[in-house]
């Protein structure tokens, strides 16, 4: 069996098993301790001869696909699937914190990108100080959630200024920004400017990057980062975690009650002020998680949050106000469109243009978003069944 056939067979086996057919661009024979064949041998527990037999069968299969002209389309389909996963992870992680704050509080947070920046800064600074990457990511999330808590208490709800005013002049002076869309946009835009310039003054125009872990996957003429696959899994885990949080916890029940009818929830004893406070901290922490997860892939600077804003706001528009269903459906639809357009044109710019076109069409024909359409279909079915 030749080196080329062994390489192709091991590569295909690595793809099928979601392994790592090439790491950092190197394809190595089975006898090398770091090669894909030795990795598969250890993972599957196969002796050398059994692995040779498996690779031989795969080699014949690869040659058949190549002779039939199917190997190229197979690689292209696999590349499209990976592009979809990368886009889905980026859109969902970028949008979920924004969707939580907007869906529950009715606040359009234009500082969302800057909370992503805080997560990335916290992760990078902690990692550069010598902490393991997972610990650094936790630090980034906590930093974003903590700043979000302060912003909510001081600016969004005005609780701290109102407490001071109540003690000094006997009356509150700030009206909360809940469900005041334009006012919240102006206020949070001001917060974003302060955070950007504050980051530039304190840390300068850039920070040393921490590097992308886990190497690359190479398949045919294509390659992608293995860390991108991890991000796709992280996006699914975040959505699943939010589902559990909203449906299985006391805070989730209070939050859903506040979304449906805030005055009624308050009259039934729900502390909506505390719910809003927690919501903004959770949404900011989710934005920080996005920055923490993407910190290894980014150039760290004060303006990095702007890279996420288009996808985040378009996903909220397309998905609708339903936090879980809207984020999931919006992310899926937009990722499919973006991956297809990127794959056809070879330029991500056209993918972003396609997302904006979709947002315009959804605003025109589905003002409640995809999740609103799903809910209306459910209601019609319920009426028909009754």
UniProtKB/TrEMBL annotation:
<dbReference type="GO" id="GO:0005886">
    <property type="term" value="C:plasma membrane"/>
</dbReference>
<feature type="transmembrane region" description="Helical">
    <location>
        <begin position="216"/>
        <end position="246"/>
    </location>
</feature>
<feature type="transmembrane region" description="Helical">
    <location>
        <begin position="131"/>
        <end position="156"/>
    </location>
</feature>
<keyword id="KW-1003">Cell membrane</keyword>
<keyword id="KW-0813">Transport</keyword>
<feature type="transmembrane region" description="Helical">
    <location>
        <begin position="87"/>
        <end position="111"/>
    </location>
</feature>
<dbReference type="GO" id="GO:0022857">
    <property type="term" value="F:transmembrane transporter activity"/>
</dbReference>
<feature type="transmembrane region" description="Helical">
    <location>
        <begin position="308"/>
        <end position="337"/>
    </location>
</feature>
<feature type="transmembrane region" description="Helical">
    <location>
        <begin position="349"/>
        <end position="366"/>
    </location>
</feature>
<keyword id="KW-0029">Amino-acid transport</keyword>
<dbReference type="InterPro" id="IPR052157">
    <property type="entry name" value="BCAA_transport_permease"/>
</dbReference>
<feature type="transmembrane region" description="Helical">
    <location>
        <begin position="276"/>
        <end position="296"/>
    </location>
</feature>
<protein>
    <submittedName>
        <fullName>Urea ABC transporter, permease protein UrtB</fullName>
    </submittedName>
</protein>
<dbReference type="InterPro" id="IPR001851">
    <property type="entry name" value="ABC_transp_permease"/>
</dbReference>
<keyword id="KW-1133">Transmembrane helix</keyword>
<keyword id="KW-0812">Transmembrane</keyword>
<dbReference type="InterPro" id="IPR019924">
    <property type="entry name" value="ABC_UrtB_arc"/>
</dbReference>
<dbReference type="GO" id="GO:0006865">
    <property type="term" value="P:amino acid transport"/>
</dbReference>
<dbReference type="Pfam" id="PF02653">
    <property type="entry name" value="BPD_transp_2"/>
</dbReference>
<comment type="similarity">
    <text>Belongs to the binding-protein-dependent transport system permease family. LivHM subfamily.</text>
</comment>
<keyword id="KW-0472">Membrane</keyword>
